[in-house]
Structure formats: structure tokens, C-alpha cells
Design brief:
This protein has helices at residues 11-41, 48-51, 58-84, 88-92, 100-126, 131-152, 157-191, 194-207, 215-232, 235-258, 264-267, 273-301, 304-314. With 315 residues, the protein is mostly helical.
Length: 315
């Protein structure tokens, strides 16, 4: 074991535990949505598919989303850490050992990632696929857009704040805890190949969103979030970056709705592919600075004992 607080479970077995709890959480999240729906709407479970996107049921949809996401992502990662480590919060990366410069750089990095991701979305559109597959994937995109539009339903500033919490903040916390604090963390410790762990996690992160046309964009965002966590060792920074990306999208939706325009304009935004070159250059420069400052922060805040242990798996 490379962690002094380990309970003796190997990281390979811990990863299997995480996947098992993830599957169980996915099932439990679906089951728990039923009593939430019935209690908040007074309607039967058979009406859910047809009623979910109706404006009068928006609060129930929001609560179901929060509950299912927490049970599917946050709890499996937390309980896995609890099973294998005496300090689960620390293992997941919930440390405050970072400074404001790292935070600002993380947000700047996410801005560069957003530009690059939007260009990759344009590339995704250009990849030829069979018409049947294209129609199927386009239907999935339309369904996802309808769900997000129903969940936001931003009419007032109060709705905007609720959407920021429900769509930007909580998913950032829950997903980063699972994907970066849990999956990437354990894969890195198990394989001792951080880049491989980041890539695998990013691919899975993109796949679970069930969006073909957003696949490359989400892989890009996943890699960037993974590198932020890898270099800083702080999950709070990847959460902040993820939140920043989500909050920009929610804010765009709010502005478009106020202007009487369709929300899809914000969700389907793409940039010319040459913008991706600018985004990559920006990411490269910012990560050089972020890596250097993060290394100094780790040197300052981490005890020699913890640093020696971490170097066995993170270097």
C-alpha cells in the first residue's frame, strides 16, 4: 500500500468496488426517482415518461436529477474511499492545499478548454456516419436538449440561481468526485500511469453522457479536468473548473431566453476548427504555469511523509 491510511485493500480491488457501487448506484438512483416523483407531483409512475418535460413538473425533475446524480456518482466514490481508507475525504482529493493563483489559472484553463471543445464539436459533426446512426444520435441530442431546457426553465433571476445550483454546481461536485477523485485517482494509483488513467476516465466520462456529437468535446474537457486534478492534487480545483464551464452554459441559456431566442443555440454552439489551435496553445501555456505553481504549493502544504508516499504513485 502506498497510503499510510490504507485499510489493506489494493487499488485494483478498490477500482472494482467503485465500479460495482457505481452500477448499484445507477439502479438505486432510478428506483429512488419513483417515490420522489409520486410525492412531489401526486401522479403515478406510469405517467413519468410523458409528464417529465412539462413545466408544472419542473421542481420534481430537478430533485430527481440531484438525487439520481448523487446516488450514481458521489456516494459510490465516497463509500469506496471509506471502505479502503481511514481518511476517505483526503483520499478523494478534498484538500484546501491550493492558492488563489491556481484557482484563477484553473478557470483560465477551462476557458481555453471550452474553445477547444467547441472546435472539436465542429469536427465531430464532420465525421461521416451511416444515416440511420446519424438519425439515432440526432434524436438522442434532441431529447437531451429538451431535458436540459425543461430543467432550466429560466424565467426569472431566481430561476437562474436555482439552475446554477442544480445544473452547474451539484453536477460538478458529484461528477468530479466520482471521475477524478474516484476513478482517475484509483486508476493512477493502480497502474502508475497517470496519462493512461486520465484518458480512460475521460473516455468513460464522455460515453456516459450519451452524446455522439459532443463526444470529442467532452473527452477534451475530461482530459483538462483530469490534468488539473493530477497537477494540483486538489479536487476542489477541478470542481471549480467544471462548475465554471457549466455556469457559462447556464448563463448563456439565461441570456438567450431573456432575448426570446431558443436555448438550443447555447447548447449546440460550435467554433471553427482553427479556433481549436488557439485553444490548444492557450491550454499549453496555462498548464505550464499551472504545473509550476502547483508543484510549489504541494511542496509548501504537503508534509514530507505524505509527499514521499504520493511520489510512489503520482510521479
Amino acid at each position: 500500500m502506498y497510503d499510510a491510511d490504507s485499510k489493506g485493500v489494493s487499488y485494483a480491488n478498490a477500482f472494482l468496488i467503485l465500479i460495482g457501487l457505481w452500477i448499484a448506484g445507477f439502479i438505486a438512483g432510478g428506483v429512488l426517482s419513483i417515490p420522489v416523483w409520486v410525492a412531489m407531483t401526486g401522479k403515478g409512475v406510469m405517467s413519468m415518461p410523458a409528464e417529465l418535460l412539462k413545466p408544472e413538473n419542473i421542481n420534481a425533475v430537478r430533485v430527481i436529477q440531484v438525487v439520481s446524480t448523487a446516488v450514481t456518482f458521489f456516494l459510490p466514490a465516497f463509500f469506496t474511499a471509506l471502505i479502503i481508507n481511514r481518511r476517505p475525504v483526503k483520499l478523494l482529493g478534498f484538500t484546501t492545499q491550493f492558492n488563489y493563483r491556481q484557482l484563477l489559472l484553473a478557470l483560465g484553463i477551462m476557458f481555453g478548454a471550452a474553445i477547444t471543445a467547441a472546435s472539436l464539436a465542429e469536427l465531430n459533426e464532420l465525421i461521416p456516419i451511416p444515416k440511420n446512426a446519424a438519425d439515432y444520435f440526432r434524436k438522442l441530442e434532441d431529447n437531451y436538449s429538451a431535458q436540459v431546457e425543461a430543467m432550466t426553465n429560466i424565467r426569472t433571476f431566481g430561476d437562474y440561481i436555482i439552475s446554477i445550483i442544480m445544473i452547474a454546481l451539484l453536477p460538478a461536485v458529484f461528477e468530479e468526485t466520482f471521475f477524478r477523485g474516484g476513478m482517475q485517482n484509483l486508476l493512477t494509483r493502480f497502474s502508475k500511469k497517470p496519462w493512461l488513467a486520465i484518458l480512460i476516465t475521460s473516455l468513460i466520462f464522455s460515453v456516459i453522457h450519451l452524446s455522439y456529437y459532443g463526444f470529442l468535446a467532452r473527452v477534451c474537457l475530461g482530459v483538462v479536468l483530469g490534468l488539473i486534478f493530477y497537477y494540483s492534487r486538489s479536487l476542489w480545483l477541478s470542481i471549480a473548473a467544471h462548475f465554471f464551464n457549466n455556469a457559462i452554459a447556464v448563463t448563456q441559456m439565461y441570456v438567450l431566453i431573456k432575448q426570446g431566442k431558443p436555448v438550443k443555440e447555447a447548447m449546440n454552439e460550435t467554433y471553427p476548427m482553427w479556433w481549436g489551435i488557439i485553444g490548444v496553445i492557450l491550454l499549453y501555456v496555462l498548464f505550464i504555469v499551472f504545473k509550476r505553481i502547483s508543484a510549489k504549493a504541494i511542496q509548501k502544504y504537503t508534509t514530507p511523509e505524505d509527499r514521499a508516499l504520493e511520489e510512489k504513485w503520482i510521479a
